[in-house]
Amino acid sequence: MDEQCRNKFENIIFNKDLCRKIIEYTGPLVKKRCIVCESVIEYQILTLNIVNENKKIINLQACDKYYVCSEECYKIEDIERKNIRCILAVLIFTIMCIFLLITVMTIL
Question: Can you give the pTM of this predicted structure?
C-alpha cells in the first residue's frame, strides 16, 4: 500500500501540467528573500526546495543573519563596516574593564 501511494505521489509531482496547475493555485512557499531588492532566494514547491545563489551576512549588532542575492546587493548593504564598529566597541569596553579591574586591585 505504501509503495502504491508513493508511486501516485511521484506521478503527481512529475506530471508537469498537474504540477503547474497546483502551483498556480497555491503558489510557491517563499522561505528567504534578499533584504535589499526583495528577490526570492529560497522557496519550496510542494516537496521540492529550490535555493538560488546567495550570500549570508551576519550582523553582530542585531545578532541576526541576513541573506542577499548578489554581490551588488552585498555592496549596497555594506554590513561589514558596521560589524567592525561593533567589534571595536566591544574590544574597547573590554580593555576599559581590565584597566578598571587592575586599578581596583592595586588600591586594595
Answer: 0.50
